[in-house]
Amino acid sequence: MLITTRRLSDSAEVCQASSLFRNAYAEAPWYETWTELAAHERLLELAGMPGRIAVGAYVESRMIGITVGFTQSNVRGKSLYIAEVVVEPYYQAKGVGRRLLEVMQQEAKAEGHVGAWLVTRGEGRTAEFYRKLDFTQSESLRIFNLML
Protein backbone atom coordinates (compact mmCIF):
# COMPACT_ATOMS: atom_id res chain seq x y z
CA MET A 1 0.00 0.00 0.00
CA LEU A 2 1.70 3.17 -1.20
CA ILE A 3 0.56 6.27 0.66
CA THR A 4 1.53 9.64 -0.79
CA THR A 5 1.21 13.07 0.76
CA ARG A 6 1.14 16.50 -0.80
CA ARG A 7 0.28 20.06 0.04
CA LEU A 8 -3.20 21.10 -1.04
CA SER A 9 -3.05 24.40 -2.86
CA ASP A 10 -6.68 24.61 -3.87
CA SER A 11 -9.66 25.24 -1.56
CA ALA A 12 -11.73 22.74 -3.54
CA GLU A 13 -9.25 19.98 -2.65
CA VAL A 14 -9.70 20.75 1.05
CA CYS A 15 -13.48 20.66 0.72
CA GLN A 16 -13.35 17.22 -0.94
CA ALA A 17 -12.56 15.74 2.48
CA SER A 18 -16.07 16.16 3.92
CA SER A 19 -16.96 12.42 3.80
CA LEU A 20 -13.57 11.53 5.24
CA PHE A 21 -14.14 14.11 7.97
CA ARG A 22 -17.57 12.67 8.83
CA ASN A 23 -16.31 9.07 8.91
CA ALA A 24 -13.31 9.81 11.13
CA TYR A 25 -15.25 11.85 13.67
CA ALA A 26 -17.99 9.19 13.92
CA GLU A 27 -15.44 6.77 15.45
CA ALA A 28 -13.70 6.63 18.84
CA PRO A 29 -12.73 8.71 20.68
CA TRP A 30 -14.99 11.43 19.24
CA TYR A 31 -18.33 9.77 18.37
CA GLU A 32 -19.51 12.98 16.72
CA THR A 33 -22.31 13.02 14.16
CA TRP A 34 -21.48 15.53 11.44
CA THR A 35 -23.86 16.12 8.57
CA GLU A 36 -22.36 16.37 5.10
CA LEU A 37 -23.30 20.05 5.02
CA ALA A 38 -21.72 20.83 8.41
CA ALA A 39 -18.51 18.99 7.47
CA HIS A 40 -18.35 20.82 4.14
CA GLU A 41 -18.91 24.19 5.84
CA ARG A 42 -16.16 23.46 8.40
CA LEU A 43 -13.69 22.59 5.66
CA LEU A 44 -14.74 25.55 3.51
CA GLU A 45 -14.17 27.84 6.50
CA LEU A 46 -10.68 26.41 7.05
CA ALA A 47 -9.86 26.50 3.34
CA GLY A 48 -10.47 30.23 3.32
CA MET A 49 -8.28 31.10 6.31
CA PRO A 50 -5.32 33.41 5.62
CA GLY A 51 -2.01 31.61 5.95
CA ARG A 52 -3.63 28.20 5.45
CA ILE A 53 -1.48 25.11 5.16
CA ALA A 54 -3.32 21.93 4.21
CA VAL A 55 -1.81 18.53 3.46
CA GLY A 56 -3.61 15.50 2.05
CA ALA A 57 -2.70 11.81 2.22
CA TYR A 58 -3.70 9.53 -0.64
CA VAL A 59 -3.85 5.89 -1.63
CA GLU A 60 -3.81 6.12 -5.40
CA SER A 61 -6.15 9.06 -6.04
CA ARG A 62 -8.36 8.56 -2.95
CA MET A 63 -7.86 10.94 -0.04
CA ILE A 64 -7.45 9.02 3.23
CA GLY A 65 -6.25 11.84 5.48
CA ILE A 66 -6.01 15.58 5.74
CA THR A 67 -4.56 18.14 8.10
CA VAL A 68 -5.39 21.83 7.95
CA GLY A 69 -3.85 24.69 9.89
CA PHE A 70 -3.43 28.42 9.62
CA THR A 71 -1.08 31.16 10.78
CA GLN A 72 -1.56 32.97 14.05
CA SER A 73 0.96 35.58 15.12
CA ASN A 74 2.10 36.00 18.70
CA VAL A 75 4.96 37.55 20.65
CA ARG A 76 7.41 34.88 19.38
CA GLY A 77 6.44 35.24 15.72
CA LYS A 78 4.27 33.14 13.42
CA SER A 79 2.73 29.98 14.85
CA LEU A 80 0.67 27.42 13.03
CA TYR A 81 -2.65 26.56 14.65
CA ILE A 82 -3.42 23.00 13.56
CA ALA A 83 -7.20 23.05 13.35
CA GLU A 84 -7.84 19.53 12.03
CA VAL A 85 -5.96 16.26 11.68
CA VAL A 86 -8.30 13.69 10.17
CA VAL A 87 -7.42 10.15 9.06
CA GLU A 88 -9.86 7.56 7.74
CA PRO A 89 -10.39 5.02 10.57
CA TYR A 90 -8.98 2.06 8.57
CA TYR A 91 -5.67 3.93 8.12
CA GLN A 92 -5.30 5.16 11.70
CA ALA A 93 -2.26 3.89 13.65
CA LYS A 94 -0.47 3.18 10.34
CA GLY A 95 1.72 6.30 10.17
CA VAL A 96 -0.62 8.45 8.06
CA GLY A 97 -1.25 11.10 10.73
CA ARG A 98 2.46 11.25 11.54
CA ARG A 99 3.34 11.76 7.88
CA LEU A 100 0.66 14.44 7.42
CA LEU A 101 2.04 16.39 10.39
CA GLU A 102 5.65 15.96 9.25
CA VAL A 103 4.86 17.46 5.84
CA MET A 104 2.82 20.23 7.48
CA GLN A 105 5.72 21.06 9.81
CA GLN A 106 8.16 21.19 6.89
CA GLU A 107 5.85 23.56 5.01
CA ALA A 108 5.36 25.74 8.11
CA LYS A 109 9.13 25.97 8.77
CA ALA A 110 9.72 26.93 5.14
CA GLU A 111 7.21 29.78 5.60
CA GLY A 112 8.92 31.08 8.74
CA HIS A 113 6.70 29.63 11.46
CA VAL A 114 8.43 29.21 14.83
CA GLY A 115 5.96 26.75 16.36
CA ALA A 116 2.69 24.90 16.06
CA TRP A 117 -0.14 24.20 18.45
CA LEU A 118 -3.47 22.40 18.56
CA VAL A 119 -6.37 21.57 20.84
CA THR A 120 -7.31 17.96 21.57
CA ARG A 121 -8.32 15.66 24.39
CA GLY A 122 -5.97 15.77 27.36
CA GLU A 123 -5.76 12.00 27.78
CA GLY A 124 -6.16 8.84 25.74
CA ARG A 125 -4.80 7.65 22.42
CA THR A 126 -5.14 11.03 20.71
CA ALA A 127 -3.08 12.79 23.40
CA GLU A 128 -0.51 9.98 23.29
CA PHE A 129 -0.23 10.32 19.52
CA TYR A 130 0.72 14.00 19.82
CA ARG A 131 3.11 13.34 22.71
CA LYS A 132 4.95 10.79 20.52
CA LEU A 133 5.38 13.58 17.96
CA ASP A 134 7.00 15.83 20.61
CA PHE A 135 3.99 18.03 21.28
CA THR A 136 3.81 19.04 24.93
CA GLN A 137 0.72 19.82 26.96
CA SER A 138 0.59 23.36 28.28
CA GLU A 139 0.77 23.57 32.04
CA SER A 140 -0.49 27.15 32.13
CA LEU A 141 -3.22 27.35 29.48
CA ARG A 142 -6.73 25.95 29.59
CA ILE A 143 -9.69 26.08 27.25
CA PHE A 144 -12.79 27.85 28.53
CA ASN A 145 -16.11 27.35 26.74
CA LEU A 146 -19.25 29.45 26.76
CA MET A 147 -22.43 28.11 25.17
CA LEU A 148 -24.50 30.83 23.43
From TrEMBL:
Residues 3-148 form the N-acetyltransferase domain. It comes from the Bacteria. Pfam families: Acetyltransf_1 (PF00583). SUPFAM superfamilies: Acyl-CoA N-acyltransferases (Nat). This is GNAT family N-acetyltransferase. It comes from Peteryoungia desertarenae.
